[in-house]
Amino acid sequence: MTKTTKSEESARLEARVSPEIKALWQKAADLEGRTLTDFVIASVQAVACKVIEQHQRLKLDIEDSEAFVNTLLNPTPPNQALKAAGLRYKQVLRDRTHRL
């Protein structure tokens, strides 16, 4: 079994904030029954996940849009199955027109 040192278990993060902000965060932490550290970590974690998710969604939306436009501008030639389907469709339209 590998021995884990304290530096591998966690990383330290420090931030300076105004006394008003710290008091606000402390009040919120108290209302949730958490320590200030736990409250700040949970809050930052939630926002970080949300930001990453939004960025990934935006990136995928842009990539999807680019792929869609590229397909419209540079369509692949129809294969045999698509050509056969087109012919069947035309035949159905002709049959319907003759019935009217």
Q: What is the second-level CATH architecture?
A: Up-down Bundle
Structure classification: mainly alpha
- What portion of the residues fall into strands of 2 or more residues? under 5%
As a whole number of angstroms, the C-alpha radius of gyration is 30 Å
Estimate the helix proportion, in percent: over 70%
SSE order in H/E notation? HHHH
How many helical stretches? 4
- Could you report the average pLDDT, rounded to the nearest whole number? 90
Protein model, in words:
By secondary structure, this protein is mainly alpha-helical. It has a single domain, classed as Single alpha-helices involved in coiled-coils or other helix-helix interfaces, CATH 1.20.5. Helices cover 76% and strands 0% of the residues. The chain is built from four helices and no strands. Helix 2 packs across helix 3. The longest helix has 38 residues. It is rod-shaped. It starts with 5 loop residues before the first helix and ends with a helix.
Which helices and strands appear, and what pairs or packs with what?
Layout: H1 6-9, H2 19-32, H3 36-73, H4 80-99
Helix pairs in contact: 2-3
Question: How would you summarize what this structure contains?
Answer:
The protein is mainly alpha-helical. It has helices spanning about 5-10, 20-30, 35-75, 80-100.
Task: Name its key features.
mainly alpha; Single alpha-helices involved in coiled-coils or other helix-helix interfaces; rod-shaped
